[in-house]
C-alpha cells in the first residue's frame, strides 16, 4: 500500500509539473518588455527640449538606473529564492510600470532621477533576476541556450519597441508616451509572470544526468548537499572576485561601444552618400543591436558545446582585436564590419555569466549569487562610457579610448586563461569552500 501511494504521489507530481518550455516562453515575454531601459535613449532629446535640461543631466538617470537595478537584483534573488519568482515578478512589474508612468509627469531633475533612476530601476531589478535564474534552473541540460534565448529577448525588445516609443512620442508628446509605456509594461510583465513557476529542488529533465565533474562527491554526496555556495560562501571565495573583475573588464568595452557608437560613427565616418552623419549614426546603433541579438543566440548554443571559459576567451579575444581595428575604421564599410563584430561579441557576455555563475557556485542560491555577480556588469557600465568621453581628444579622437579598452580586455583574457587552467587541473568548476 505504501509503495502504491508513493507511486501515485509521484505520478500526480509529474502530471502537475509545469511544462518547462511554457515557463521559458513566459519568461521570454517578461524579458522582452523589462529590457526596455534601452528605450530611454529615444526620450533623451525630447525630455531635454521639453524641460530645458541638458542631455548630460538627463542621461545621468540612465547611470543611476543601472546601478540601482544591479543592487536590487541581489535582494530580488534572495526574496525570489524564499517566496518564489512569480510573487516577486508581479510586484516588480507593477513598480517598473509605475516608474515609467511617473517619469511622464516628472517636471524636475530630482523627480526624474527618483521616478526613472530609482523607482523604475527597483522594478526592473525585481523582475530581471528572477526571470533569468528561474529559467536556468529549469534547463540544467542546456543552460547556455536558455540564457541565450532570454537575453536575445532582452536585445530584440528595445529594437522592436524603439520605433513604437518614437511614434508615441511624436503623436502624443513625450509625457503621454511615457505614461502609455508605463501601463503597457505593467500589463505585459504581469501577464507573463503569471505563467512563471519555480523548478522543483534539484530538478533534472527526464533522461538527463549531470556531468560527472558536476556531481557531488564524498561528504556532499552522503548528506545530499549539492555543494552550492550561499552568498557568504561565495564572497569568501577568491574565485568570485576574479570572475567579478573579468565581468567588469569585458563589460567596459561593450558598454563603451553601446553608449557612444552613434557619436563615434559620426566622427569617424560622417555623412555617407545621401545619408547624413546623424542618419549613419542611427543606422550604426541598429546594426549593433541586431548583431548583439545574433551573438546572444549563437553563444547560447556554443556555451553548451564548448563550455564557459572557451566562449569567454573567444569573446574577449575578438573584442580586443575589433577595438584595435575600430581605431582605424574611417571607411563606412570597414566601420560597419567592426560594429557588427563588436556587437556580436558583446552579445556573448550576458549569456555566458548566468550559467557560469551557476556552474561555479551551484544553482541552489543562484538568484542571490548572480545578483551580486551582476555588479561586475554595472561597474563596467560606469567605466566604459567614461573611457570614451574621458580619453577622447581633438588630436586623436577616440583612438586612445579604443586602445585602453583593448588593453583592459586583453588583461581579462589573460585572467580567464589562467583560471581555465586551474579548473582543468582541479577537474571541477566549483572551487573549494573556505
Automatic annotation (TrEMBL):
Keyword Transmembrane helix: yes
GO molecular function terms listed in the Swiss-Prot or TrEMBL record: transmembrane transporter activity
Chain ranges of the Major facilitator superfamily (MFS) profile domain: 22-424
Protein name: MFS transporter
Membrane topology: Multi-pass membrane protein
Keyword terms, alphabetized: Membrane, Transmembrane, Transmembrane helix
Pfam families in the cross-refs: MFS_1
Domain of life: Bacteria
Keyword Transmembrane: yes
Organism: Bifidobacterium felsineum
Amino acid at each position: 500500500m505504501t509503495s502504491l501511494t508513493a507511486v501515485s504521489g509521484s505520478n500526480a507530481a509529474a502530471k502537475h509539473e509545469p511544462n518547462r518550455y511554457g515557463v521559458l516562453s513566459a519568461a521570454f515575454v517578461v524579458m522582452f518588455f523589462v529590457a526596455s531601459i534601452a528605450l530611454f535613449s529615444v526620450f533623451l532629446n525630447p525630455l531635454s527640449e521639453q524641460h530645458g535640461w541638458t542631455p548630460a543631466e538627463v542621461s545621468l538617470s540612465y547611470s543611476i538606473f543601472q546601478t540601482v537595478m544591479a543592487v536590487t537584483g541581489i535582494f530580488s534573488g534572495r526574496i525570489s529564492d524564499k517566496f518564489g519568482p512569480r510573487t516577486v515578478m508581479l510586484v516588480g512589474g507593477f513598480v517598473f510600470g509605475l516608474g515609467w508612468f511617473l517619469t511622464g509627469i516628472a517636471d524636475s531633475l530630482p523627480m526624474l532621477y527618483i521616478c526613472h533612476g530609482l523607482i523604475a530601476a527597483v522594478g526592473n531589478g525585481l523582475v530581471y533576476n528572477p526571470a533569468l535564474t528561474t529559467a536556468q534552473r529549469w534547463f540544467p541540460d542546456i543552460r547556455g541556450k536558455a540564457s541565450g534565448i532570454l537575453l536575445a529577448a532582452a536585445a530584440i525588445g528595445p529594437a522592436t519597441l524603439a520605433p513604437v516609443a518614437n511614434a508615441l512620442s511624436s503623436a502624443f508628446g513625450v509625457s503621454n508616451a511615457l505614461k502609455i509605456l508605463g501601463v503597457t509594461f505593467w500589463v505585459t510583465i504581469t501577464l507573463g509572470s503569471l505563467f512563471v513557476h519555480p523548478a522543483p529542488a534539484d530538478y533534472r529533465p527526464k533522461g538527463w544526468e549531470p556531468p560527472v565533474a558536476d556531481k557531488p562527491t564524498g561528504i556532499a554526496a552522503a548528506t545530499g548537499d549539492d555543494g552550492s555556495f550561499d552568498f557568504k560562501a561565495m564572497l569568501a571565495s577568491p574565485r568570485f572576485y576574479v570572475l567579478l573583475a573579468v565581468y567588469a573588464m569585458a563589460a567596459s568595452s561593450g558598454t563603451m561601444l553601446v553608449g557612444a557608437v552613434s557619436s563615434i560613427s559620426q566622427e569617424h565616418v560622417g555623412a555617407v552618400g545621401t545619408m547624413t552623419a546623424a542618419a549613419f549614426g542611427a543606422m550604426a546603433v541598429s546594426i549593433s543591436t541586431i548583431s548583439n541579438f545574433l551573438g546572444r543566440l549563437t553563444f547560447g548554443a556554443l556555451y553548451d558545446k564548448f563550455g564557459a571559459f572557451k566562449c569567454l576567451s573567444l569573446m574577449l579575444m575578438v573584442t580586443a582585436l575589433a577595438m584595435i581595428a575600430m581605431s582605424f575604421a574611417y571607411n563606412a564599410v570597414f566601420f560597419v564590419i567592426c560594429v557588427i563584430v563588436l556587437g556580436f561579441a558583446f552579445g556573448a557576455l550576458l549569456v555566458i555569466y548566468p550559467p557560469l555563475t551557476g556552474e561555479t557556485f551551484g544553482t541552489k542560491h543562484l538568484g542571490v549569487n548572480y545578483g551580486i555577480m551582476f555588479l561586475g556588469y554595472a561597474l563596467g557600465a560606469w567605466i566604459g562610457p567614461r573611457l570614451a568621453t574621458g580619453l577622447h581628444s581633438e588630436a586623436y579622437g577616440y583612438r586612445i579610448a579604443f586602445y585602453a579598452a583593448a588593453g583592459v580586455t586583453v588583461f581579462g583574457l589573460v585572467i580567464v586563461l589562467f583560471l581555465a587552467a586551474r579548473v582543468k587541473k582541479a577537474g571541477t568548476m566549483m572551487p573549494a569552500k573556505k
